[in-house]
Amino acid sequence: MHTHSSNSSHLNVSFSSEHSGNFTAAHNDDPSQVSYSPAYPPHSAGEGSHCTIEPMRMVNDYGESTIPPATRDLSIVIPVCNEEANLIPLYTELREVLDSLHRNTEILFINDGSTDNSLTILEELACHDTEVKVIDFRRNYGQTAALSAGFASSQGRIVITLDADGQNDPHDIPRLLEKMAEGYDLVNGWRKDRKDRLFSRRLPSIIANRIINRLIEGTGVQLKDFGCTLKAYKRGIVKNISIYGEMHRFIPVFAAWLGVNIAEIPVNHRPRKHGSTKYSLSRVPRVIFDLIVVRFFADGMSRPIQFFGKIARRITELGFSGIFALWLIKHYAHRNISAETLLILTALVCITALQVTLMGLTGELLLHSRMSGKKEQYVVRQIIGG
């Protein structure tokens, strides 16, 4: 057995490289036939532990008094959509890491409308492991909704998210906790050596990260990888933010508005072994539109008159510039353009652009207000285990 003890004054954890249990598939071609044999009996939410992570600190100014107290130390939130071949290897690896921490943990799988055997496998996991809970959606609502449901159901003092495709490495979880123990409230993973295709995944991500950092530079948050799902949050963060659309990647930005300390560390990223990616270039426009909304919330949420005033000023400047340009064409190029035509066309463009902008942003304000009212954008069919 290899035992590692951190020399940090904030963290005292023993890590073991030995498997704490055996989890196998009865038949390789039938992933629904699974069994788990723990090295020790599964522990319930009320049991103590014989190894401490100190401090798993919480900051008490996030509205902690208004949310139920944590009953576990760690919550692992994993959205799942058609990942039947990846679930058993991921669970086995994750179980080994969590057992080595000797903490009171829970694993939340959110089945986001899977059409393969994912739900069957998750049900088996919940039957064999009391620390596993499965939230089953009626249909596919997207990763943001899945994470939101996981956050709402989580009971841990610290919440860790990761993908179900096996590309995130569960062995990075202790490193996230070590960084958090230095006094950070949110630790973001950075896929420094990313194992994805260059043109369809990595290049758009690089461009998107640069655009996001440029648009939100006023928030004080500058990260290298907003899209990495592997993150660690303190409970007060996930219980006090509302996300929708494609905004899960902007959680660090929302968290920054709570005044939290955010850190980023390189994490291991592995190639996908089974299944196909759920991401494509078709998602880029949706991310761009969400970027506009994030920018609006960053600058205009507390002072909308200033935000809309800037838009009105730009539209006015463009309108008068257009009028002047057409006037020059009329008088120096001797084109037959009447003054009335110039005025009407320019006014029509300006008014239309202003109306569309105001309608879109007003709609986002109303949607944000609705989401802040805790009206969820997903429907849960059933909750299994836990």
Topology of this structure?
Elements lengths: L2 E3 L8 E3 L4 E7 L2 E9 L33 E9 L3 H18 L3 E7 L6 H11 L3 E6 L5 H11 L2 E6 L11 H8 L5 E5 L7 H18 L15 E4 H4 L12 H7 L4 E5 L17 H17 L3 H29 L6 H34 L7 E6 L1
Parallel strand pairs: 5-6, 5-8, 6-7, 9-11
Antiparallel strand pairs: 1-2, 3-4, 7-12, 8-10, 9-10
Helix pairs in contact: 1-2, 5-8, 9-10
Q: Pairing-aware structural class of the strands and helices?
A: alpha/beta
Q: So how many helices? A: 10
Count the beta strands. 12
CATH topology of the largest domain: Spore Coat Polysaccharide Biosynthesis Protein SpsA, Chain A
- Low-pLDDT runs of 5+ residues are 1-63
Order of helices and strands: EEEEEHEHEHEHEHEHHEHHHE
**Name of the CATH superfamily of the largest domain:** Spore Coat Polysaccharide Biosynthesis Protein SpsA, Chain A
**Strand sequence of the main sheet, in spatial order?**
11-9-10-8-5-6-7-12
Rg calculated over all Cα atoms: 25 Å
The first-level CATH class of the largest domain is given as Alpha Beta
Helix content: 40-55%
Largest sheet: 8 strands, mixed
Distance between the termini: 31 Å
Overall 3D shape: elongated
Domain Glycosyltransferase 2-like: 75-239
Biased composition (Polar residues): 21-36
GO molecular function, one term: undecaprenyl-phosphate 4-deoxy-4-formamido-L-arabinose transferase activity
Transmembrane segments: 311-329, 341-367
Outline the structure in words.
- The protein has 386 residues and is an alpha/beta fold.
- The chain is built from ten helices and twelve strands.
- The protein folds into two domains: 301 residues, Alpha-Beta Complex (Spore Coat Polysaccharide Biosynthesis Protein SpsA, Chain A); 71 residues.
- The strands form three sheets. Strands 11-9-10-8-5-6-7-12 form an eight-stranded mixed sheet, sandwiched between helices.
- A hairpin with a 2-residue loop joins strand 3 and strand 4.
- GO terms for molecular function: undecaprenyl-phosphate 4-deoxy-4-formamido-L-arabinose transferase activity.
- This is Glycosyltransferase involved in cell wall bisynthesis.
